[in-house]
Structures are given as C-alpha cells and as structure tokens.
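Example 3.
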Amino acid sequence: MTGLAMPLSDRRTFLKGLGVLGAATLVPGCATSSKSPGSGSAPTGQVALQSNLSSEQAKAAMEKLVAAYNKTGGSQVKLNTVASEIFRTQLPTYLTSANPPDVYTWYAGSVADSYAKKDLLLDVSSVWDSMGNYSKAMQTLSTSSAGQKIFVPTSYYWWGMFYRKSNFAKWGVTPPKTWDEFVAVCKTIQGKGIPPIGIGLGDTPWVASAWFDYLNIRINGAPFHRQLLAGQGNFTDPKVKAVFTKWREVLPYFDPKGKSFPFQEATSALLAGKTGMFLIGTFFADSAPKDALDDIDFFQFPIIDPAVPVAEEAPTDGYFASKKVQDVDGVKKFLSWLATAEAQEIYVQNSSGTAIPANPDGKSADTPLVQKGKAMIEGAAEITQFFNRDSSDALQPTADAALTKFLDKPDQIDKILKDWQAAAEKVFKA
Amino acid sequence: MTATAVEPQSATGRDPAAGPRRTKRNGPRRVSPLILAFVLVPFVVEAVWVFWPALQGFWLALTSWDGLSAPRFVGFGNFSDMVSDPIFRTALKNTAIWLVLFGGLSVIGGFGMALLLQRERRGVGIYRAALFTPVVFSLVVTALIWRVFYQPDGLVDTVFRTVGLGNFIRPWLADPDTALYAVIVPALWRQIGYVMVLYLAGLKAVDPALYEAAKVDGASAWQRTRYVTIPQLKGVNSVVLSVIVIDSLRSFDIVWSMTKGGPYHSSELLSTYMYSTAFQSTQLGYASALAVVIFVLALAVILGYLIRAFREET
C-alpha cells in the first residue's frame, strides 16, 4: 500500500512519463514500414556491423578489430553485438527489414546460401578480386548456388578427438589412427574404470551431430553427406543406417553422465580426467583454464574406410552483407579489409587463439596444437562445415531428437530414422 | 432555480449562453480529455502491440511462412498436419498431464498449506514467507537451481542414496520417462506458494461467525471445512482456476530452461513446441497454428468455468 502513497505531483510526472514511454514504443513500429530501401540516398559514411560474437573474449577482439579499421579512414564502422541465440532467430528479420544493418558475422556454406537463394545478400564478387590467394575450398564455400560470391571467410576452426596427454601416458595408450585401434583404446581406458568417450548433450544436444557427421564422411564420404543434408538423400537409406551400426560399436564406451550436462561440463570432465576423450570443436578452449590447455592434444577422427577420401570438419566463419546496403563502396572496402591477413591476425590474436585465419598468409597462433590442427585441415581432401552449417538451423533440431534418441534407445534405430526422415521432409518443404 | 429555467432553453439549442452552463451541469457525464487519454493511449498501444499481432497470428496460422519469403496461404493445412504429427500429439498429451498434475497438485497443495497456516500462531509468518519465497524467483532462476539439484551426483541423487533408493537414480532430466515430471516438481515448488497466498486471502475474508455457528451446531472440523470454508471460497476458486489454466498453458520458461522439451521431445509442451517450430525450425505458419490451438484451449477451459460460475450467481 505504501507504493501508492506517493505525492500527487510525483504520480503525475510518473504517469506523464508512462505516456511518453508508450508513445516512444510506437515509433520503431513505424520505422520498419516507412522509408523504401536504397531510395537514392547518398553514402552515409557509416557501416553498421551486426555481430553475434558475444562471448567476452570474442567481443573484445571484435572491438579491437573495428577500432583498427576505423583508424584507416573511409566509412566508420559501428559494431553492434547481439547474443548469438537472439542473432540467429532475428537474422531473417534483419535481412528482410526495410533498413537492415549492413554487414553481419555469419557462417560459410549452406546456411549463408539459403539467404542468397532469397536474394537478400550483396554480391561481393568484386571483393574476391583481391582474394586470389584463398584456397579453392574457401572459394567454393563462399559461392552461392547461383554462382555469385556472397561471403567473405575470415577464420575457421577444427574438430578433433581431444584428450589429456598426461592421462593417455598414465593409461598407457597412444592416439589411434584406425577404427579398430580406436575401439582398442576405448577398451583399455574402460578397463581403468574411466568412461572412455565424453559427451555433453544436456542443453547442447547438437554436440552429438559431430559423431554423425564424422561417421558419415568416413563411411559414405563428404559428397554423400552434403547431399543428404541438402535434402537430396533419405535418412532411411541403408547407407545412413550403416553409420549408426558403426556408432553402436562404441556406444558402451560413452560417458552415461554426458546426457545430463552441457559440453562445457563435459570439457571439465575431460580436463579432470573423468573421461578419456572428447570429440569437440576448438571452441571448448574458451571454457577451459589456460594452464590445462598445455596438456591438451587431439587426434584425427579415426579412419574407417581407407578408400573414402579423407574429409574433415572445418567450420568457417566470416561475413556477409545485406543486399540493401546504402554505402556499397564503403561496405565492400570494409569486407576487403577483413579479408586481409593483417585484419585476421588482429582478430585471432585477441580472441581465444584457436581460430585459424582464412587468409593463407595470415599467421595463426604459434602453439603446436594450432599448427597440428591447421596441418590436418590443409591435408584433407574434402572440407565439411558442421551439421547445421551444411544443412540449416531448421534441420538441426531434427538431428538432435534423432541422435539423442539413438544414444538412449539404439534398438529402435529403424523407427528413429523413419521419424527423422519425416521431420526433415517437413523442414525441407517449409 | 436557475437550472430548471435553463433546461428548456438549452433544448432548443439556440441560446449561445446555454452552452457553457450545460457543460457544467452535465459535467460528470461528459468524459474529460484526461480520462479519454488514459483510455485511448493504452488502447492504441495495446492495439498496435497486442491486438494487431494477435490478429496477424490468426492469419499466419493459415499460411506456410519461413519468415523470409511472403507467406503462402494454405487454408487449414497446418491444422490437418497436426493430426498426423506425432510430436504434436506428445506435446498435447504432455500439456494435459501438466494441466492435471501441475494444476491439480498446486490447488491441493496450496489449499492445504493455506489451511495449515491460516491460524495466527507463533512463527507462522516464517513458514508463510518460506513457502512464498520461490514465487519471488524468476522461473529461469528456479530452473537453474533445480538443474544443479538434478545433476549427476547432485542433491537429488544424494538424497536418494541416503534413504537407500540408490537403484532409482537416473539422469532425471535426460531420461524420457522422468524428464516431464522432473520439470513439474520445481514448477509446483513455486506455484504452491502462489496458490497458498490466494487462498490465505480468501480464508481471511470468511466470516468467523460462520465457524462459530457451525461449531455450536456440532459440526466437526472436517464438516466445517467441507460445508463452510469451501463454499465460501467460490470467488477465490474462479481466480485460482483461471490462474492455473493460464499458467499451465503458458508454462514455457521452466521447461525451456531445464530440458528444451527434450530429450527427443519427451517433455515437449504445446508452448515449447510452438517456440521451437517458430524460432528453430522457422516454420512460422505451423507455429502460429499451434498458438491458435493453445489460445482456443485456454479460452475453452476458462470460458466454460466462467459461464458456469456466472449462471450460478444469477
């Protein structure tokens, strides 16, 4: 009751304020409806950069990057960092709005191409004129299905089977190269009373997709994998079932607790020696203490069929721009700068340091781990991105449901694959 | 005196002097601009931010839309898709379970607690406050706390082990058989306190003389509860029912932050399924259709009760 006892004048100003607030909320509603896109307005001299790199280190690195560019003169870049989950759900809204931000952080591959198909992205072919030294794989990844360059890659990272060197030494195992060796290592570690394979599916069920991706590209090859994820295959295909049959061989070695916690805790479990190995991307290092990282090494996902060309997952990050940008020259100039080795080094040095510059001339962090990762990716015959990047964010939940169910009830694999196909068809149809 | 003289004049509407006078006289009936503003400004805000999107939602339910291209009209296609959608059926079933368990247990628990704690005894305030505390927390915070309880070797596991039920331990939130119930518990933990407060307020309003009269007539404690307390709480009941039905159908935050509807849709509610179809699978048309279903369900339950309640009153 005391809340209402404020003096009358106070209450009036409060209510007045409320009215102003109400009126103010109406304004953005109008902003999206008025002003036609690119209505002959002159270059604004400002480029809006929408970033989803919201983790502390990555955000700081982006701020340094933008500050460095703004010193070079030309259009000033304004950085707007948004939490990645919000960014992901809002991106379609950004791109279709009448006055969208200019440049966006995003991922190469199918997830970028889906926006190009809707004709929402700026053709950056002219930016690529200065990017002749980029690898063929990077070029392919950045080209839309219509043949235009729509993406500027700036860095990539890799996935691998990470482990603690000291623990492997203690258990007397060496990194396996083939599937049989891998199973043998699992057996040995389990013999020591440690769950050999760590995983973190609670809250981060997508981590299981790494296993599906790798088994599929090792057994059926990258081209089959990409087609399947693009909706040209069928999840009930016996070739897909073969992936799960193989997976089942190592299911007993998975950490049963992994279903309950997210990958960050699975990382802690690995570092604490409570699990033996962990198939994960290098981003796990963000949530690991620095001193433990010196003891960390990884090995390539074991080879299953030597006849299949070796493919690796190397998710590539970078930028694309909205088709509706007003200051086209300013945006292209900024993108060209982002593609330089110099700009990518600024980012890599200031972020967690496990990302590798997309520009072959860019220097990555000088640790043996990163050098090894870089060598593995450069030696791969084929590069895949990751489940959601090779398909779409919309298909990812269907994989999460299917794969977590398989880990729980491997007997029901036929029904699981049938349900997965039905769910995927709905996504592809939408 | 003058007032009666003015009356016929103003009826002709010719006398300019009558204007201001009439305003004064009919003052209370004429709406002042300030009040109009108070009504219209919120109405306009509401119209733009609530009514218009709601109407759009109904329209989108009849389309297929990915958020990028223009919506494509599909008639009632989304609704017929639901019939054959196994996840929708799970979500509907879970929502029903949720409504019954979460709704039922919070009414029973809240009412029981209110009966226990209604009498002013020493320290009763502490108990009331303790039961009400969970209501103060945001549901997301509640979810985080309970996730820590449920984690492997966490509090729940420890308790089970200490009482010798170690065999029953499972990954509570990751097991499809327990996930939904493991989420209902923290939801109840919060809701019981809320319902208790509603009933406490209701019990305070019951005339003590009624109890005395019943006592004099030789009514037992049970009879007093059954024939005095419960009928007297009819007004509160309709509030509680509305609150519970609405809270059940909009339960989202706690499920989303604990299981995201997983593992593999086993704890999916209509609300979480709506969210994931809209913002993860970007099937906005189908998600709008799910929203319409939720709306219709809520309206049906509440309207049904309200109509009955009003009929009894008149």
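The longest strand of chain A covers residues 46-51. Residues 359 and 394 of chain A are 30 Å apart (CA to CA).
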